[in-house]
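Record 1 of the preview.
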Amino acid sequence: MTVSGPMLLPAELSIVIPCYNEVANVAPMVVALDEALVGQKWEVIFVDDSSPDGTASEVRRLSQLDPRVRILCRVGRRGLSSAVIEGVLSSSAPLVAVMDGDLQHDEAILLEMLTRLQAGAEIVVASRHVEGGDNSGLSGHWRELLSNTGIRAAQAIMPHRLSDPMSGFFAIRRDLFEVLLPHLSGTGFKILLDLVMSAPRSVRIVEVPFVFRPRLAGESKLDIVVLLQFATMLIDKLTRGWLPTRFMAFALVGLIGVGVNVAVLDIAGACGLSFSWSQLAGTAVAILTNFLLNNRFTYHDRTLRGADFWRGLIIFVAVCSLGAVANIGIARMMLDSAGHGHWDRSSAVGAVVGVVWNYAVSSTLVWR
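->
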């Protein structure tokens, strides 16, 4: 499609769409926006995190046909929240909407969101959980459970009443976004909650219903890793940024490693191994688990792949092995002082010491 005349006037609404591997959805999205926003001055900014499927190339092709279509390519950076931040900062309109690139968000709602902002609202959230909204587009009970768990956790601590803080479909005044920007953690996949928890109580937030549609192409990004990143962002807000988000993520992974360590320890002990051999087995499995989770979760923006993955694993194992020596020694000392009935407690103390060492070295040698 070719656009001319008044549609080339400065945009009133910028639509920011963070995307990764959404090549099949780009053209249908532009067509849907064109039909939904007839008579409006708008632009759409696709923020692509180096998708290997050609998403950026498809956006460039469309931008040659329609100057309202723009592409922002990010190299070496990953993450939905940071992609949204960069997309909003590159926009030109006073009002900004954020939506997913998978066609599950109903673009027809944009007109109502635009109207609400023009009428005085400062943030407009498209909610699946108010009257008229629907969440049936989530694929499977597991993803629905993850979403609902996140909603309940957020509602327990957030300063604003919001039925759907996990929504990825919202609109905001750009001037408010710029005010809130210094307070954003910029991590994870739930930028709306980051914004709402950074906003003073005086900010006017309204919700409009929308039906979450089934995905037609590509794969959903909602998984347990998203929920873990969501949890670290909540902690970041509760601590008012005093604890680095990445450290909290590493510590959370470390806690999971402690659980793995203790579980393997108990299994090995039940199989007749001595405490020292059981602790060694638990530590080894915990090291591997921590590496995989940190690579996927804590350092998601610098994930190791290919040869870098194996090189990083070797360094991580070497670093953690040094920590494991202290881990086992401290656990042995705790066991001797507490008695042989306290394997779990002794193992957990030793594992915590290992986590501190691992974080100090991993950030400089493994995920540089």
